[in-house]
Amino acid sequence: MRKIYLVPTLVGLLTSVAAGPLAAQGAVPKQKAAPASKANAAGTAPAAAGTPVAAGATSAAAAETSSPDDKSKAIDGFRSAKFGMNEADVRAAIAKDFGAKPDAVKAQDNASELTHSLLYSAPELLPNGGTAELSYVFGYKSKSLIQIGAVWSKGSDAAITPEKLFSNANILRAHFLSEGFKPDSIAVNMPVNGGIVMFRGSDAKDRSVILLLQGTFENRDNNQRVLTPTSLLLFYVADAKSPDIFKLPPGQF
Predict the structure, then answer these.
(1) Do the beta carbons of residue 147 and residue 92 sit within 8 Å?
(2) How much is the pTM?
(3) Of 141, 161, 174, 182, which is the most exposed, with the fewest CB atoms less than 10 Å away?
């Protein structure tokens, strides 16, 4: 079973993106060209192999879909599971959203962060996207829901492919770009260690959505870095800058 963390690196992702746009690094997802699916028709279709992913803090598409007159997107959780819910309420939400039987929802504790999680494998969470592992994380002090995550990988679905991961990432990125997040919080296609932040956006209360395509980079001709995706991570986070996890008080050591 995969160990669930509140992903302290999310803090780094938020900080680095907020500091300003990264220079283009020539990151290229390694994949085969594929026909656009129905879901892709409304958004960005996966690029063919060798097409660079543009790096930048805010894309032109984001600027077009997020204007001052738009109603700002509010991030309060994922489907029926809302930030601040207790474990019993989240279990009920999982059952409502996915028809999950009680024994299909697994519990897991994190010994270092002292958080508690519920895990559920959701087939076709994204249409034709394969099985994803969902995680619902409860805070150290609050004991309430502070993060929801979804991971697509070989660990969640043995049939998943790099092409499917990148297709899922493109579909989700196009969706989030149309959702009306704060324009100055939106970042797309940001190369980071071990992957690409396909999307990051926050609402007026600084609750965030982060979509991270992870994989291995290799250098190709013309110093072009090619990413072979191995997993796609989606996070809904109540407070990525000051997460409710255990930390040693200052001065104890």
Answers:
(1) no
(2) 0.79
(3) 141
